[in-house]
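Late entry, evening session. Most of the bench is empty. Finally got around to the prediction I had been postponing all week. Sequence below, unchanged from the version circulated by S.P.
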Amino acid sequence: MAINASDRLFAQDSAAYDANRLKVLYKERRWTLAVHELDKFLAVSPTSSEALQARATCYIRLGKYEQALLDLNKAISANPSNLGLYSLRSSVAKKLGDDTLANADRLRAIGQKLNQAPFKPAGRLTGTKVNERGHCFATKYETRHFRFFSDSSSEQTSWTAESLEGFVCFVDQRVCRLRGAYPLTVFVLKDENAMNEFLRQSFGYQPKRSLHGLFFASANAFVTYTDSGFGTFTHELMHKVLSETVKELDYWAFEGIPTLFEKTYGYPTPSGWSFCFGYQNPWRLRELDKKWDSLSLTKIVQNSKTGDSSNESEERLIATFLNDNGNLDKYLELARLGKKNGFNTYLEGAFNCSLNGLEPKFRDYLAKIRSRWTELQEIPASKTCSSEGAFLKFKSENSRALTPILGR
């Protein structure tokens, strides 16, 4: 039996042979064995940027892009001036479908700086201690599309309003064109109890369960509370957007598509805001845990006709399935035109496939989610960052959880 050069080198005990071992392993394309050697070295020197880069290169050769990204993030933290690391991370980010990070690192690799232009507010503070619908709000802030009455601080109110203004402009340009009445009135109470009292007194609505927020189409108003989260704003806003822009929807989509925007992250740029959305929601996954193996696309579609709000998390799975397969735009366009392409639902029309035909694809999608169950529980709350640089740092810190389910 022939003995490879690397096998002879492994017979040596001296640490002086480490570099030679790696060179030979690289030459022989023995990537897994090289990773094993680097694991031992990094156990002793965990911040060695050279070793981290070498192991990332091996992972890339093995097609393990998520592990490669983790090593490159550590290597860049240890040696941020090494432009080669950014170039390598750019290629990995591209493989993982993260075009934002890929483009940013490409610019870094050629020595260009990220655009850090100062944020320019689109709205203005128009009042303090303002009475509206029988309640004295601490702050009033107005943008082109929103009138905020809030019990939050003026700083928090202005940032939320600016973020939501950026989001609705993003939706108008990238998701579906806006129609209907604006500005939308937004009421932000100090907590859930205060919100419930405001709903009873000002809208005659008695909440039957815990709510993060509620949109009233008849009043063109949205009611929520301070700590409900940015995802609540984007979710409820999409109820208004869809009701005014789309001709009709499948039953599941009335709640399913707005919930798709519960996980939204973004940042301002000189030319407008940039957002990414559609990530899994940890608490909704936990809600479905016990019945996960029995979930069926056809059953979810059928059950949605009852209008039962307890089906929301199941309906959201259809929305993420649609979006992760790149068919959200097609679905909304078909729904806007009222065309189902010969099928019974717009969902089937968007995939050009019957529900029965889609079942295997849907089950495979659920299996992929289940295989990443633990890391998906780490998906952070929706947020907006002050700059592209801050956003990229946030996304890098959460890269494992935010990696797309289907690698798009």
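Two things to note before I forget:
The first strand starts at residue 124 and ends at 132.
Residues 1-17, 111-116 have pLDDT under 50 and may be disordered.
Will write this up properly tomorrow.
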